[in-house]
Automatic annotation (TrEMBL):
<dbReference type="GO" id="GO:0003677">
    <property type="term" value="F:DNA binding"/>
</dbReference>
<dbReference type="GO" id="GO:0003700">
    <property type="term" value="F:DNA-binding transcription factor activity"/>
</dbReference>
<dbReference type="InterPro" id="IPR047057">
    <property type="entry name" value="MerR_fam"/>
</dbReference>
<dbReference type="InterPro" id="IPR000551">
    <property type="entry name" value="MerR-type_HTH_dom"/>
</dbReference>
<keyword id="KW-0804">Transcription</keyword>
<feature type="domain" description="HTH merR-type">
    <location>
        <begin position="26"/>
        <end position="95"/>
    </location>
</feature>
<dbReference type="InterPro" id="IPR036724">
    <property type="entry name" value="Cobalamin-bd_sf"/>
</dbReference>
<dbReference type="Pfam" id="PF13411">
    <property type="entry name" value="MerR_1"/>
</dbReference>
<protein>
    <submittedName>
        <fullName>Regulatory protein MerR</fullName>
    </submittedName>
</protein>
<dbReference type="GO" id="GO:0031419">
    <property type="term" value="F:cobalamin binding"/>
</dbReference>
<dbReference type="InterPro" id="IPR036594">
    <property type="entry name" value="Meth_synthase_dom"/>
</dbReference>
<dbReference type="InterPro" id="IPR003759">
    <property type="entry name" value="Cbl-bd_cap"/>
</dbReference>
<keyword id="KW-0238">DNA-binding</keyword>
<dbReference type="InterPro" id="IPR009061">
    <property type="entry name" value="DNA-bd_dom_put_sf"/>
</dbReference>
<keyword id="KW-0805">Transcription regulation</keyword>
<dbReference type="GO" id="GO:0046872">
    <property type="term" value="F:metal ion binding"/>
</dbReference>
<dbReference type="Pfam" id="PF02607">
    <property type="entry name" value="B12-binding_2"/>
</dbReference>
Length: 315
């Protein structure tokens, strides 16, 4: 599940084919391609030239990889993206490869390594390891940079793998819950600065949108900027939103759209929200950067973390 966020974001859309036999997952090369972000022909080339991670075969001669193979391939990609040539890696044992990757583990500013570590901890449901990695990244880079370079790319990839059936929904819930808890802790510890002009924001997710990570991060940024927030959470009925706007009288409404279940016509969803929200609307989330959002009065799309930070700091 490793990707280098500065170089590539590769997501396979087709349905994957891994099977489970005797409680052991068996991955096809297409599964591996999606999980590690490396093309199948590259994996085959490694196998042919260097005998790197040759696949196993079923009794009917079908090629497959197991979880140990997946971990080895993840480690190989991690080393390769950090300057190790494949020809050199091929001369190392699996244990030597693992040892080298562990030496890189404390490089908290290395996004590719930490994406690997988070992916591995998620597959194992290892809460202590996942929390350790999160804490290390945040201590080194701060929450804003960690969200931008590590956590948002990680959660986007996890969501895609869940949609295609490569991982279980429980994996996504496991990771989302721990990230959510970490952001809440950072919000609670944050001291709100004094600000001459304090604005009021109502934060919510519309119907059918339930991923709160981005919305919680927006709440963190707003508190950091000294503004007031009313946080409503996920899947708020449109009729309730209208009542809240009338009673709270915010200066802005803020939503985040990330769920693939929303479909491709985001403009219809945004238009419906605006029908119930009579104040300027800020819209963020991974889907905003992937689709063309129609320009409207009272609407400000924020396509990435930099857009969010710059807009809120300039208010």
């Amino acid at each position: 599940m490793l990707i280098n966020v500065k170089q590539k974001l590769y997501f396979k859309q087709s349905c994957l084919t891994f099977v489970v036999i005797n409680n052991v997952k068996k991955y096809s090369i297409s599964d591996i391609e999606s999980l590690i972000g490396i093309k199948a022909h590259t994996i085959r080339a490694w196998e042919t030239r260097y005998n790197l991670v040759p696949p196993k075969r079923t009794p009917t001669n079908i090629r497959y990889y197991d979880e140990d193979d997946l971990k080895m391939l993840l480690n190989i990609v991690a080393l390769n993206e950090n300057g190790y040539k494949i020809s050199r890696i091929a001369k190392l044992s699996r244990q030597q490869v693992s040892d080298l990757v562990r030496q890189l583990d404390s490089d908290w500013g290395n996004e590719s390594i930490q994406l690997l570590n988070l992916s591995d901890a998620t597959l194992k449901y290892d809460e202590n390891e996942f929390s350790r990695i999160l804490t290390g990244c945040i201590d080194e880079m701060g929450l804003v940079k960690t969200m931008d370079l590590v956590l948002f790319p990680f959660m986007k990839r996890v969501g895609m793998l869940w949609q295609t059936g490569t991982i279980d929904p429980s994996h996504e819930h496991f990771a989302s819950s721990l990230i959510r808890d970490k952001i809440i802790v950072k919000i609670d510890k944050l001291e709100k600065p004094r600000k001459k002009k304090v604005l009021r924001f109502v934060l919510f997710l519309p119907e059918a949108e339930m991923h709160e990570t981005g919305l919680l991060f927006a709440r963190y940024l707003l508190k950091k900027c000294g503004h007031e927030t009313l946080y409503l959470g996920s899947e708020i009925p449109y009729a309730d939103i209208k009542k809240v706007i009338s009673g709270y009288k915010p200066d802005y409404a803020f939503i985040v759209l990330t769920s693939l279940n929303l479909g491709k016509d985001l403009n219809k969803i945004i238009e419906k929200v605006m029908d119930y929200v009579e104040v300027p609307l800020l819209v963020a989330g991974s889907l905003i950067s992937e689709f063309d959002i129609l320009v409207k009065d009272r609407l400000t799309p924020l396509k990435n973390v930099c857009d969010m930070v710059e807009f809120l700091e300039e208010l």
